[in-house]
Design brief:
Number of strands: 9
Largest sheet: 9 strands, mixed
Order of helices and strands: EHEHEHHEHEEEEEH
Structural class: alpha/beta
Radius of gyration: 15 Å
Shape: globular
Number of helices: 6
CATH architecture: 3-Layer(aba) Sandwich
Distance between the termini: 28 Å
CATH class: Alpha Beta
CATH topology: Rossmann fold
Length: 197
């Protein structure tokens, strides 16, 4: 297993903001398209993966085979925006158009979570999306957060180390966004470790 993180890049203007929010030096990130990521995963095993945002839906972006491969190999995976939607769709969640939220601050409510163990209650995040996962979620997925309008804002797999965030933790307007990413990393690699978000 490599110490590197696979960053699945989907042609989004926020991709490098997300990269800079990760708790690793950029030299340790392998930045690849979905197609390139599949080829990489045939020969390499990254320590963890991040599926970044993008302008399409997960099927158009070619992300569902990537999520399937990561899930089958139980590679810890954080999905952001489009990546969150791809995780949801792979496990059977439905994706629907919603009222666009492009650069909209929102107060979301976080529920107790296995993969964000030190975050719960209400916090402010930045939303950039016009698609969203909708209820009911499949049994493999647990709701982690909803927006003030009821939109699903975060999900986690019941047993695999896979977390999806519909909002942008990389945004300056997301309170403690980078700390959330660190909390996910601690949760999957040092379960029970004390956090200081």
């Amino acid at each position: 297993m490599s110490d590197r993180v696979l960053f699945v890049e989907n042609g989004d203007s926020f991709s490098y903001n997300v990269l800079d929010a990760l708790p690793v030096p950029r030299r340790d990130a392998v930045v690849l398209t979905p197609e390139e990521s599949l080829a990489f995963l045939r020969h390499e095993e990254p320590r963890w993966a991040v599926i970044g945002p993008g302008p399409f839906d997960p099927r158009e972006a070619g992300l569902l085979p990537v999520v399937a491969t990561l899930a089958a190999r139980e590679i810890p995976t954080l999905g952001i925006c489009l990546g969150h939607q791809a995780i949801g769709m792979h496990f059977g969640a439905m994706l629907r158009p919603v009222e666009p939220h492009h650069g909209v601050r929102d107060a979301i409510r976080l529920e107790p979570s296995r993969l964000l163990p030190h975050f719960r209650g209400t916090t402010t995040v930045m939303r950039y999306h016009s698609l969203a996962l909708v209820d009911p979620l499949p049994p493999e997925l647990r709701l982690v957060a909803r927006g003030s309008d009821g939109t699903i804002m975060a999900v986690e797999h019941e047993s695999l180390p896979m977390l999806g965030l519909q909002f942008h933790p990389d945004s300056f307007a997301t309170v403690s966004g980078e700390a959330m990413v660190r909390d996910f990393v601690r949760a999957v690699f040092s379960p029970g470790a004390e956090a200081h978000p």
